[in-house]
Amino acid sequence: MSFFQLVVHVLNQKMDAIMSGTSIEENYKYYYEEDGFTLHVRDRVWYTQCGPNKCLTLYELLKRTTDISTEDFRLRGMSMDHMAQKGFLRIVARSSFRIHRMPVRDEEIEVITTEEKPSAVQIIQAYEFKDKDGNPLISGESEWMFLDPQNKRLVPTKSFDLRVPNTERKEHDCLPNGRIARPDNLMEAGNFKIAPSHLDGNGHVNNAWYAAFVTDCLPQDFQELTPKDFRINYSRELLLGDLVKVSLAISEDRKKVTLIGEKEKELSFECELYF
């Protein structure tokens, strides 16, 4: 879908709303704001997306944000297949989320995502989860990169010419994405062998699975808590048959847990959870 088609789509939705006597906010499943970059999606939290506490899991949070950002690009004429044909592979590099309240099973929610002004090598995707009354649930942003599908080399964002980029960049209510310090008191927390079910369409472990690995490694008393902040950085992809070793460190005040995943002693991912 081109930018012009998006504008027409939004105008048609507004016209339908006017004709039916309702506002666009009262009658939609998804729509774009007039900037052409901000996508609103109305959805529900499903049974299988929740853990024993009936709340959305971190694994499902990463799945949902990946899916909605991918759908945003598809709706704007940049499906994964189309991008691959043009020499672009889009992968997530790191994410940060602030959890005001984790949505619960059967709850109606609105998810808003915006592709913002890119940096030299990263696409910035912002997210807002809200309840049906507009109260904040989760705020966050992810940094994505483009690789050449053939040689996996980094492609500068200025070379991504399939759309006119956004020129706006906003501050978001979450910790900034950035380097995660490696603690000195790491201890082994778990090992995972990569199985076929972990792989996505790019042939490597989907980024959401790392949150599942992290959750499975948390001590039992942390399993029952909801983090206030969650940051994760991806360094080296995991492939079928790989073994990832996860180490963990807990701060003295027990308010921060750091997890480091390594593949053959090389960093695969690093993660922080604040409680």
Describe this structure in words.
- This protein is an alpha+beta fold.
- The protein has five helices and twelve strands.
- Strands 1, 2, 3, 4, 5, 6, 7, 8, 9, 10, 11 and 12 form a twelve-stranded antiparallel beta sheet that branches.
- A hairpin with a 6-residue loop joins strand 4 (108-116) and strand 5.
- The longest helix is centred in the N-terminal third of the chain and has 18 residues, at 3-20.
- The N and C termini lie far apart (42 Å).
- The model is unreliable at 17-24 (pLDDT under 50).
Q: Determine the number of helices (DSSP H or I, runs of at least 4 residues).
A: 5
Distance separating the two termini: 42 Å
**Main β sheet profile:** 12 strands, antiparallel
Strand content: 25-35%
Q: Give the tally of β-strands.
A: 12
Mean pLDDT: 92
- Fraction in helix: 10-25%
> Which structural class do the helices and strands define?
alpha+beta
Write down the Rg: 19 Å
Shape: globular
**Helix/strand order, N-terminal first:** HEEHHEEEEEEHHEEEE
Key words describing this protein structure:
globular, 12 strands, 275 residues, single chain, alpha+beta, 5 helices, 12-stranded antiparallel beta sheet, 21% helix
Layout of strands and helices, then pairs:
Layout: H1 3-20, E1 30-32, E2 38-44, H2 58-75, H3 80-85, E3 89-99, E4 108-116, E5 123-131, E6 136-147, E7 154-155, E8 187-193, H4 207-217, H5 220-223, E9 229-234, E10 243-250, E11 256-263, E12 266-274
Antiparallel strand pairs: 1-2, 2-4, 3-6, 3-9, 4-5, 5-6, 6-7, 8-10, 9-12, 10-11, 11-12
Helix pairs in contact: 2-4
Task: Give a brief description.
This protein has 275 residues and is an alpha+beta fold. The protein has five helices and twelve strands. The N and C termini lie far apart (42 Å).
